[in-house]
Design brief:
Length: 267
């Protein structure tokens, strides 16, 4: 249950990673001895309570924070710095530049991110990705004229146009109302169905993790350690009232907050 077929090479390996912050007065262990592997087209969820080190781990994968111990490899190569092979997608409402059209937003990112050497090449790649995510009709629209879901789609298209190996999303829906949040989750899944990108998605919501994730890594409260890894391929919103969904939710909840009761339940 834990890993996909062993003949597929992992895209990303987090290998016994501990990350400490040194402040003026103390040392904070944000994540401790964390290991996991992400495979191509995984929707990999990092799930754990606030303060358990999810953002820290994601920043470390992004190359912004060096692990204190252990290492992180992408395609077998140790991550030492940020790079265009790992793209962060932030909250939908503040990520597109409002004074640029959808197409211009993509071209700007491509030129700025040094993915393209000429404007012509940037336009060609932008066109390809806008078609891929069904936004071609809206290429000349300004962000404020798009729905929240379409803005997110455009922002993800911009990320994908950079042709990263992996998209990194840190609680992008946390500030949204429940209905919008559900729409955004569905939109993200629809887009994934079309393009099968690899994503690491951070959340502290158990339901969001189950709905979005194909695999879920459960982290303990501070300092974050791996509690368990679950397969959630077969669970989506349509089964939200089914017993398996409720069982999974309960199981994750007790793993997060009652480690004694479930000691040894990690599978
Ligand atoms: P999460 O994203 O799971 O809420 P974080 O990765 O933001 O958790 O934080 C993990 C722990 O590290 C927390 O205890 C937090 O206070 C601490 N921490 C985060 N960033 C810093 C920092 N820049 N300096 C010192 N401590 C930090
Ligand atoms: Mg965080």
């Amino acid at each position: 249950m834990k890993q996909p077929a062993p003949d597929i090479a992992p895209l990303l390996e987090v290998d016994n990673v501990t990350i400490r912050y040194e402040t003026a007065t103390q040392e904070v262990i944000a994540a401790e001895d964390v290991s996991f592997s992400v495979y191509p087209s995984d929707r990999f969820v990092l799930l754990g309570p606030s303060g358990c080190g999810k953002s820290t781990l994601l920043k470390s994968i992004g190359g912004y924070i060096a692990p204190s111990e252990g290492e992180i490899r992408l395609g077998g190569k140790r991550i030492r710095e940020p790079g265009p092979d790992r793209v962060f997608v932030f909250q939908e409402f503040d990520q597109l530049l409002p004074w640029m059209t959808v197409s211009e937003n993509l071209c700007f990112a491509l030129s700025n991110g040094k993915r393209c050497s000429s404007q012509k090449e940037a336009r060609e790649i932008a066109e390809r990705y806008l078609q891929k995510v069904n936004l071609w009709k809206f290429r000349n629209a300004y962000p404020h004229t798009l729905s929240g879901g379409m803005k997110q789609r455009a922002a993800i298209a911009r990320g994908l146009a950079m042709q990263p190996s992996i998209l990194l999303m840190d609680e992008p829906f946390a500030a949204l109302d429940a209905l919008t949040r559900q729409q955004m989750q569905d939109e993200l899944l629809a887009l994934w169905e079309e393009t099968k990108f690899t994503v690491i998605f951070v959340t502290h919501s158990i339901d969001e993790g189950i709905v979005l994730g194909s695999r879920i890594l459960i982290l303990t409260p501070h300092p974050g350690r791996v509690r368990a890894e679950l397969n959630a391929h077969e669970l989506d919103r349509s089964q939200a009232v089914a017993p398996l969904f409720a069982n999974t939710r309960d199981r994750i909840y007790s793993m997060l907050f009652d480690t004694k009761l479930n000691a040894g339940a990690a599978s």
